[in-house]
Amino acid sequence: MSHFREYKTRRTAEYGVRRILVAEGYEVVRVTERDGALPTLFHLIAWGKDQGIHFIRIGSSRMSSRTFSKEVQQLTIYVRTHWNPGDVEFWIPEERDWERYRILVGGAIPITEQR
Predict the structure, then answer these.
(1) 11, 55, 61, 88: least buried by Cβ within 10 Å?
(2) So where are the chain's domains?
């Protein structure tokens, strides 16, 4: 199914997450960055009938716990200070599966249920 050695960089991980979301019935667009502009906060936006909208940031398998904490902190500040029409999520490859987190005002919680 998934070959996690392919997801060492965030860019390759984006394509892996996109494949999963499409298989789950979502429409997915990749948010691109412009040269010279501020980096985008989200890498993918996914939506589906009766599935809501998901704004997704993706980490890589090279991510350390310190980097993970910084990413979650940045996303938490965003959730606290901006209105979003859907869920904000953070995905990172972990061993043979994806760790999925929903970002809330107070931090991140693991997403354990299947979509």
Answers:
(1) 11
(2) 4-110
pLDDT of residue 3: 47
pTM for the predicted model, two decimal places: 0.79
The CATH T-level fold of domain 4-110 is: Trna Endonuclease; Chain: A, domain 1 (3.40.1350)
What's the order of all strands across the beta sheet hosting 87-94?
27-30, 44-48, 52-58, 87-94, 97-104, 107-110
The CA-atom distances, in angstroms, between 73 and each of 27, 30, 34, 61, 102 are 27, 22, 24, 19, 12
Q: What is the pLDDT of residues 49-77, one digit of tens each?
A: 888 899 999 887 777 777 888 889 999 99
CB-CB neighbours of 88 under 10 Å: 21
